[in-house]
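fold-stage: in
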Amino acid sequence: MLAFGFLKKVLKYLNLLLLFLIVSLIPFAIGKYFQWETDKREREAISDKVRGIMKLYHCEDQEIYKAIMNTFDPVLVAVVIAVESEFKVNAISRAGCRGLMQLSPDKLDDWQNIHKNIQIGSAYLEAQLKRFGDLELAFAAYNAGPEAVAKYRGVPPYRETINYIKKAKRLVIAFNETLSGQAPEPPAEKRIGALF
């Protein structure tokens, strides 16, 4: 009889502990759910923006879309592809750069491999963003090379690079107005100190 009473008390305390844990976990679970929903909406917005940029260039290639979505910043990578190759897989520049992200021949042998071309190009773009800390300078470095940006302590005075940056900015502005109806964020100030 004594053992039964003790067991009853233990079960009562275990039930209270279980109830406490359940009540404690409800806010955590709700928070996780809302975070998941927020992340899902953000991913959908990014996806819509990438598809919108691709649509401007009449590109519906799912392999290109998936490769872009697996980069560090899908929207930015889509903008660079639009400026570099207009989403033409077989694009070759006068300087011999190739593919969607216009890689130099020394960066990739199989330049028509969509996934590799975008992966290597986006890694290079990300490296320029980290090095210069400014989107305009990263665009300039992607186009003219980081050495030229460092040499001129800003955007090099090359007509091609200046036009490249203007085209990228126009695309971002047009794309933001088309998809969101909002004015784009003002560009970050140049951080020339980040060059060295």
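fold-stage: in (second)
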Amino acid sequence: MSRTIKNIFSGINGDEFIATAFGLGNLPLAPGTWGSLGGLLLCLALHPYPVWYILVFAAIFLAGVRASGRVEKGHSLKDPSYVVIDEFACIFIVFIAVPMHPFYLAVGFALFRLFDILKIPPMKKIEKIKGGWGIMLDDAVAATYANLVLQVFRLAGL
């Protein structure tokens, strides 16, 4: 195993393992993008199975609320950049009732990252909620915005 891969997992506890989306948040450069990409891969695998898609999303989301809140409190940092379980989980929302076509995948991924970075209202207010709920819910809003844009594209026949 390379030194870099070994460092991704060294010294992290269970909450950190979940909060970093299984180590993705420890990758260099743009950890939120890595978390989103990891979540997207799981979305692709589960999309043909809607019940599993929703159940797995709900389980990851709730585990993310708990783990991210504990990591935030334990490290005394507000929404640390290496906590990417929010991106990993919430990208599932982007692709609810959306065809898994390359166009939608690319546009949905880009919109989700853009909305998450720009923090369009009311995301800044939601982000101020303490603990894991604040960490997870602002990304849920970004994902909902991205999904709504994709629904408009879909209804327009794009």
